Predict the structure.
Amino acid sequence: MPVIDIPEPDFMADEEIAIFRDAVGRFFEQKAPEKRVLKWREDGQVEREFWREAGEAGILGVSVPEEYGGHGGDFRHDMVVVDQIGHKGVEGFAASLHNVIILPYVVRHGTEEQKQRWLPRLVSGELVSAIAMTEPGVGSDLQNITTTALKDGNGYRLNGSKTFISNGQIADFLVVVAKTNPDEGAKGISLLCLETEGLEGFERGKKLDKIGLDAQDTSELFFDDVFVPADNVLGGEEGRGFYQLMGELPQERLLIAMGAMATIERALDVTAEYVKQRKAFGKTIWDFQNTQFTLADLKARGTAAKVFINDCVAKLLDGKLDVTTASIAKYWLTELQGETVDKCLQLHGGWGYINDYPIARMFRDSRISRIYGGSNEIMKMLIARSI
């Protein structure tokens, strides 16, 4: 029995959701065994073929409408994929980025022609996506990006660089944040969609050497006078990019909180199993009161966090998830994630510091969640505005 064992919320009670969860879990067990994931960590990225396999299995684009090649699901189906990735330890496979962050930009903001052109191939795994937002000198302050896309005939010339781009080495579909009118501040920002194959002036930089997320490629991207046709501006109208970005942020931050919750649950499960088997001073680690109190405290707070996350998802499904609540979820869950994996690692003793053990990798991988998607300091600023 899992450590956090609250009942499924009503919105997840459909039999079809349960069947989908089982299918996703079996896919990861069969196609992403520990040996294959180890190879991803050694290579620093998931091989391209796995994305095609995931597309064939119906793991990609689960909430994309059927008329665009998708599976016609909703956020609950995306939630299942994110949850199973966390519980099965499918490290590096950024389906959450692809499904829950990038594809919704095209679904909600793309023109009909853009949806028909890109969504079927994004659902099949023919195209793997990335979003190029962050720049070397600009983090959360998107209004001050320096990448430009200036008018040139029937298109734009894109110049600039981006960094910390997840899927940067393998992505062949990019959503690039650029200024089409540098004098207009937020109103001058547009989102440009690019297919990278054979794209003149586009270059991938080095794969960045991180302290965690070993199997997730994170890269620099460079754009040197890249020509972008006018009909590649997302939504067909320039100057809408900042508002398109802001509109998707609550869902993105809830996604990060959900990933944190999955890690909290997995950390508690593997630690409970470990301490009940590992012996010291003639008894198991579990027999010590300190161990019991530590895990009891983490279970109590993890249970409260799970109830809160379920409420946030319910709000999202009803179209009522606001910026403040999403910011609270991202802030609180990622802080709890860091504390949970740290205390669980401590209960593993020296073995917790060895990368062969899942808790060690969870410890390293968890650190970034307090930074990306808007740092937790930014989250606190957003929360404070509601007071």
Q: What stands out?
A: The longest strand covers residues 155-166. The chain has three domains: 10-127, 130-237, 243-384. The mean pLDDT is 94.
